[in-house]
Specification:
CATH architecture of the largest domain: Orthogonal Bundle
Number of strands: 8
CATH topology of the largest domain: Ribonucleotide Reductase Protein R1, domain 1
Order of helices and strands: HEEEHHHHEHHEEEE
Strand order of the largest sheet: 7-6-5-2-1-8
Helix content: 25-40%
CATH superfamily of the largest domain: EpsJ-like
Largest sheet: 6 strands, mixed
Structural class: alpha/beta
Shape: extended
Length: about 300
């Protein structure tokens, strides 16, 4: 009887030990998962801090006197430096080099749509939809789109009948799709308030939108512009711009700052700001958000180490 009781007790002890081992294993696995999550959050926070620091440095550089020889320019040049173990790449682009969704000429907008691969008919229809979206009335243009067209397409929204507040808003225009938007967005702005574009800083996609422009001439100009920037000289004028050339506008700049850690963690900060140079508020932030880590920096791919 005593032996039987001892055997039962031994079995119970073994079961308890097994149960405790399972509990301990689950706890250790859970803690390892929690530790990994913490490391990931810490890495993301560190990368985000590095990217945000890059934006702040860009604004600091832009606020330097124009005569400062090492001052960063809004020309798309990529500046690289290391901050607390993070490799940071920062580029600044003057928004005057982009095509304004609200003020650009119809020909320039349609030229952009055609350069993205749309036919004459499709680009004309998209232009009409864009103009109908931003005008103040409900009158439908030829090949345009107003409220009844959005209802017929099953949309749960209608044109704003107001200027575009952001470039992202273009995604809601009838006839737009994600693939087309990704092609158009880098060349667009809502901040330049000009009918044309500043070719000294314009990205390739914006230059190719100029009606009648020769693509080979654009590539030749981009090479000349890069050479001029590398040697510290002013970019040459673009002969193909014609009436679509515009001067520097509202002192508005977009900044893309990418921070990459040694473990591969990446964070991209994108921001747009206007320089006010008011002592208490020298920079007015117009847009602030997370960027696409896969998207290349806009402008000129010239590296500048700091």
């Amino acid at each position: 009887m005593i032996r039987r009781e001892r055997g039962v007790a031994l079995v119970l002890v073994l079961w308890v030990i097994t149960l405790l081992a399972v509990i301990a294993g689950n706890f250790a696995f859970s803690m390892r998962g929690e530790a990994q999550i913490t490391r990931n959050l810490l890495g993301t926070a560190q990368a985000q801090a590095g990217a945000d620091a890059g934006v702040q440095l860009a604004w600091f550089e832009l606020l330097k006197p124009a005569t400062e020889p090492q001052r960063w320019q809004g020309n798309g040049v990529v500046h690289e430096f290391t901050l607390d173990g993070a490799a940071v790449r920062v580029s600044i682009l003057d928004e005057s080099g982009k095509i304004d969704l609200n003020t650009a000429s119809d020909a320039l907008l349609q030229g952009l749509f055609k350069s993205a691969g749309l036919s004459e008919e499709a680009s004309g229809a998209l232009l009409g939809a864009v103009l109908d979206w931003r005008d103040a009335d409900n009158l439908k243009r030829l090949n345009g789109a107003e409220e009844e067209d959005y209802r017929a397409a099953g949309k749960n929204y209608v044109p704003s009948n107001a200027p575009f507040a952001t470039v992202d808003e273009l995604q809601r225009v009838l006839g737009m799709n994600p693939a087309l938007y990704r092609k158009l967005a880098p060349a667009l702005t809502v901040y330049s308030r000009q009918p044309g574009l500043n070719t000294a800083v314009a990205p390739r996609a914006a230059l190719l939108a100029i009606p009648g422009v020769n693509p080979d001439l654009v590539e030749q100009f981009l090479q000349q512009r890069e050479q001029a920037l590398a040697s510290g000289q002013a970019p040459p004028p673009f002969a193909g711009a014609g009436a679509f050339a515009a001067s520097v506008g509202m002192q508005v700049y977009s900044v893309r700052s990418e921070a990459r850690l040694a473990d591969g963690t990446v964070f991209v900060r994108q921001a747009v700001a206007r320089l006010t140079r008011v002592p208490n508020n020298p920079v007015a932030v117009l847009a602030w958000g997370e960027g696409d880590a896969e998207a290349p920096a806009p402008g000129n791919p010239i590296a500048s180490n700091q």
